[in-house]
Amino acid sequence: MFVGTIHAYCLRLLQQAPLYRFLKFGVLTEIQQRLLIDRNSRKSGLTEVPLLAGGNLKAFQDSSLYQVLLSMVEEGSIPSAAIPSAVSACVAKYEQLLEDKRYLDYSGMLRHAVSENPGKSRVEVSSR
After folding, report:
1. pLDDT tens readout for residues 55-101
2. Omega of the bond prior to 84 within 30 degrees of 0, cis?
3. CB 21 within 8 A of CB 13
4. Long-range contacts: 17-20, Cβ < 8 Å, 24+?
5. Which one of 24, 68, 116, 119 has the largest count of C-beta atoms within 10 Å of its C-beta?
6. Backbone angle region of 77, left / alpha / beta, with phi > 0 → left and psi within -120 to 50 → alpha
7. Strand locations in the chain (E)
8. pTM as predicted
């Protein structure tokens, strides 16, 4: 029996046999994620996200908004057709940056755990 957070459980799935693909990946906290986004504002897609009022998001000013956007796209069950292509391109850049730097964020851990372990995608929780 495993006792821990859902994120710890997902990380454990991703770093044990037969995957091992994510064994050398680090996990980003929300603060570390924001620093990564700001320090790599172009590579992360941050400064290319278009605003409805015109212009784009700005580094060090709008990074927390970008984190919310990333979480909504990743965890919000939004149909891909409803996401503007410019936003999808920015999210893809962010995911590529994570892959290049060998990082997992909390949303990515959940996504990878489900996609890499289709037989274990259902988590059973017991209340005692």
Report:
1. 999 999 999 999 999 999 998 889 989 999 999 999 999 999 999 99
2. no
3. no
4. 19/116, 19/117
5. 116
6. left
7. 26-27, 103-104
8. 0.84
